[in-house]
Amino acid sequence: MSPATSPPDAADARDALAFLLAAGCDVPVLEAPRRWLEAPPPPRAAQPPPNASQPAPAATRPAPDKPHPALECTSVDELLALLGRFPDARTRPPLLFHGALESRVWVLIDRPDHDPAHRETIDRMLAAIDLDWSRAALVSRLAWPTPGDGEPTASLLTRFTPVLERLHSLAPPTHVLALGQLAAEMAGPAARPVSSRGRWFDWGPARLLPSLHPRVMRGNKELKQQAFAHLKLFREAIG
Q: By C-alpha distance, which of 207, 157, 205 is closest to 182?
């Protein structure tokens, strides 16, 4: 019969626990038996608590912008009817063009003017090269004057430029005299600088010649001479 063993004292228990910790034991008993000589199983992914909020769904992509309604017009009459539905038409009719579009010769401006003297000057400029509005069209990038005759804002240009581009497609010109920088840049940013005046640029199938608007000349004799030189170039080109 084996002799009775005495329970371990505190020192023995401490030494046994230290051995187990050094050996890598972290729990005294597992839920299932484990073969300690085999590699441990991979850890399980942590599960969210029952009341945890679900992740937000991925943000949906914004719907693409609708094309400008002017691009869907199939005739000049449809384009004018579209302008008639703009809020601005409640107070005055649109002034997109005046004269003979069928001539395919355009005098392009940035906006209709409050000052009638500017329009009179343009009439005289055209007469100086033996043209009138039965053989040319006065076309405006904006269909209405700006408030207070101020410079057009970027939002106004964004709103109305597709209308002009559609007119350009429906009644394409062959030659365009662009009066002012905002009119000239329809042929691209290179046509906008002052240094572009009197040089020809392509605007689709048309040739565009940047020149000066009457509001810029304002009695300046040198600028008037430059504008007249541009008029002669334009007249020679259209034949």
A: 157
Task: Report yes or no: 203 and 172 within 8 Å, Cβ to Cβ.
Answer: no
Rounded CA separation 97/169 (Å): 14
Instruction: Compute the residue count for the chain.
Output: 239
For tokens 């904006």, name the residue.
142
Q: Which residues of 116-128 are buried (b: 16+ CB within 10 A; e: fewer)?
A: eebeebbeebbee
Going by C-alpha positions, the residue among 120, 139, 145 that lies closest to residue 177 is 139
pLDDT tens digits, 77-127: 999 999 999 999 999 999 999 999 999 999 999 999 888 899 999 999 999
pTM above 0.90, yes or no: no
Packing angle, helices 221-238 and 116-128, rounded to 10: 50
Q: In terms of Cα–Cα distance, which of 228, 92, 98 is closest to 167?
A: 98
The residue with tokens 């109305």 is 160
